[in-house]
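Quick one, tokens below:
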């Protein structure tokens, strides 16, 4: 059983108080796939140009990410994003977005991907997210991400899309925008009326909250000693969360046992987000081992017990 991941594969230029990298592998689907690959086999769906480097392809392949769905457009250039972080790294400004081949992205799944049971839809146009879901008739669990742009300017399309999802994973400002509520508890209650039975609200360095109609569960952010580059942390959270559930064979939760698995999935999400911030871009995934992930998960269990 594999997890299908759809979204951007990019080159990023990032400046943080710790330094600047002009062009490095990035993109939401890259981070989600790398993080998820520690838990379950991943099949990637994305588009790149012919400037996409062999070594970047090799990094994904070294994590056994299936690249049959990575479309390479001859003569095209890969999506490019440039961002700069504030001194405390809680805010970032986008300085440049060149959609390039991403502008024509219209994902058509390879035949081998269609029967898979797990789907994570990264932040792309809601109608494309919907069309991918429609290509997968045997789904056990579907969820995804979105962003302000789609919430504000494509609201009807977005609502129609997430109506079919099991879970939505967004940050706190997006949850407020989507629901029109400032209070997160109210925001969550309103979003849980839109279709998904499970909502995860990411709160950057403050962790995340899992909401269902009858419960919520708060997970702190891991207290890193040195935070180098937060780019991709939210996506790695998604990869850890969804990867864990897929690896355990969990579908829409039916029992208290499944809810306990959801809680664990949120902790693994927080763990993967924290590793991502330890080095620039995807660099931490060049050396990260599964035993380090499990050790940090145990540390969470100790820190959170009372
Ligand atoms: P995160 O820090 O988790 O929000 O993810 C940052 C990643 O998202 C970067 O690697 C970017 O390449 C990618 N990204 C930035 N803007 C967009 C966009 N408009 N659509 C899709 N991916 C994006």
């Amino acid at each position: 059983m594999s997890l299908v991941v759809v979204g951007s594969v990019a080159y990023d230029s990032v400046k943080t108080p710790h330094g600047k990298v002009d062009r490095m592998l990035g993109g939401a689907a890259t981070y989600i796939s790398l993080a998820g690959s520690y838990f379950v086999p991943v099949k990637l769906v994305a588009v790149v140009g012919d400037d996409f480097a062999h070594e970047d392809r090799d990094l994904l392949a070294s994590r056994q990410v299936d690249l049959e769905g990575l479309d390479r457009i001859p003569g095209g250039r890969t999506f490019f994003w440039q961002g700069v972080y504030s001194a405390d790294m809680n805010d970032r400004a986008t300085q440049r977005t060149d959609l390039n081949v991403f502008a024509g992205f219209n994902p058509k799944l390879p035949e081998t991907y269609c029967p898979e049971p797990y789907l994570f839809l990264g932040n792309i146009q809601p109608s494309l997210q919907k069309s991918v879901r429609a290509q997968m008739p045997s789904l056990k669990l579907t969820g995804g991400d979105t962003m302000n742009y789609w919430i504000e300017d494509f609201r009807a399309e977005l609502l129609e899309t997430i109506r079919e999802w099991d879970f939505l994973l967004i940050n706190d400002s997006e949850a407020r925008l989507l629901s029109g509520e400032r209070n997160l508890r109210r925001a969550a209650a309103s979003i849980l009326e839109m279709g998904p039975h499970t909502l995860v609200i990411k709160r950057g360095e403050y962790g995340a909250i899992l909401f269902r109609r009858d419960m919520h569960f708060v997970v702190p952010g891991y207290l890193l000693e040195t935070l180098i580059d937060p780019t991709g942390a939210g996506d790695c959270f998604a990869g850890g969360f969804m990867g864990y559930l897929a690896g355990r064979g969990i579908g829409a939760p039916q029992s208290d046992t499944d809810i306990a698995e959801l809680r664990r999935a949120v902790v693994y999400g927080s763990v993967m987000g924290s590793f991502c911030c330890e080095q620039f871009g995807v660099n931490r995934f060049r050396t990260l081992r599964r035993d380090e992930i499990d050790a940090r998960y145990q540390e969470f269990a100790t820190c959170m017990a009372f």
